[in-house]
Amino acid sequence: MDEEVREWFVGVDWASRTHYVRVSDGRGRKVGERAFEHGGEGLAAMAAWLLELTRAPPHAVFVAIEVPHGPVVESLMERGFRVHSINPKQLDRFRDRFSPAGAKDDSRDAEVLADALRTDPRCLRELSPLDPLVVELREWSRIAEDLKQDRNRLGNRVRELLWRYYPQILALTDDVAAPWFLELWRLVPTPDKAGRVREGTVERLLKRHRIRRIGAAEVLERLREAAIPVAPGTVAAAHAHLDAVARRLDLVNRQITEADRHIDRLTESLAAAGDDALGQKTEQRDLTILRSLPGVGRAVLATLLAEASEALQRRDYQALRCLSGVAPVTRRSGKKEVVLMRQAAHVRLRNAVYHWARVAVQHDQRCRIKYAALRAKGHGHARALRSIADRLLAVACAMLQSQTTFDPNRTSRT
């Protein structure tokens, strides 16, 4: 009986303004429920209320919540409570046990969370505090991704505006958001200006940006092609609009460079922290092992370390393939069996492993052979890349367990 009294289960139905909390004992009986305002005082009051109500140490109180991160989770973990995360879809299924008709409210959700943790703890994932470097790396990785999306969006606007009055300049590059291209446009903003600029000026611009695939003479030849006849005022209007977009692109390009520097610094700091923790400089660390895999660059490495750190630490292959969406979903009923793409996945991890597999196919012979075989069987491009990513995740987990770096010669013999 005393053992049951010491077991406390808390369900937190979080919201943007008010969090509804329910406390149950080891038998599922309600001990108390209360709502707390979101904020420093409210979250502190929540923790104090839980300790006062249960009269137990924080590590004896088990908390269930729908999200794996955020201020509520961090506040409770900071005070020593054992916080567990549950997928919203799982919570919806657990809710059916209490209301088959589909009734839903904050109080019921808090009760469902607490009871699910009490009866089915294996369905919830206990959260552990993240390394501060990982938290910072995750934020910078997301910043870099947001900036690249802004860059693509602004680049599309540049392309549209140039297509309107200056299409010949678009033949010089596919990346119209590149700094060198924007500087070239400022130097030669209109077809009329192209006839007056000197070849030496363009050559110095290309040399300054280390552009070697195209020469100054070829650039001027393209720019001096026959211009499109447009209505009066069109060139001036498009030029003014493009100038405003280019100014924003300059800022975004600088911010991307800064974000990349921060990501490199944080990844190196993680490697140094891992070495110091073990006191063995010669042992291969996780970051070095992951970096040795084909197709892993700055963005992929940062995303893996930031978004899947817990699964990587556990070397949990099944968790990684589910989180990244490469594990298919099988639906079998009687004689009917359908295998579908997994939709419930971490979007950033899904994108990261997709590009990881894509680049690996270009640089690793084993991946290239497997991709060709899958395509020959009739699989589509994306389907084949998911299989490549699945294999790469299995290889990564095996390497992390054995603490060895990637050896292409070894994999080609197996």
Features:
414 residues, alpha/beta, Nucleotidyltransferase, domain 5, 3 domains, 6-stranded mixed β-sheet, two-stranded antiparallel sheet, 19 helices, 59% helix, disordered N terminus
Descriptive overview:
By secondary structure, the protein is of the alpha/beta class. It folds into three domains: 2-129, 2-Layer Sandwich (Nucleotidyltransferase, domain 5), CATH 3.30.420; 135-256; 284-413, no CATH class. Helices cover 59% and strands 10% of the residues. It is built from 19 helices and eight strands. It has helices spanning 2-5, 40-54, 71-78, 88-95, 106-119, 132-165, 179-187, 191-194, 199-208, 216-223, 234-278, 286-292, 298-307, 309-314, 317-323, 347-363, 365-376, 381-402, 408-413; strands spanning 8-13, 18-24, 30-37, 61-65, 82-85, 125-126, 329-333, 336-340. The strands form two sheets. The protein has a six-stranded mixed β-sheet. The radius of gyration is 28 Å and the shape is elongated. Residues 1-5 and 276-284 have low confidence and may be disordered.
Outline type: elongated
Q: Based on helices, strands and strand pairing, what is the structural class?
A: alpha/beta
End-to-end distance: 56 Å
Task: List low-confidence stretches.
Answer: 1-5, 276-284
- H and E order: HEEEHEHEHHEHHHHHHHHHHEEHHHH
Largest sheet: 6 strands, mixed
Instruction: Give the number of helices.
Output: 19
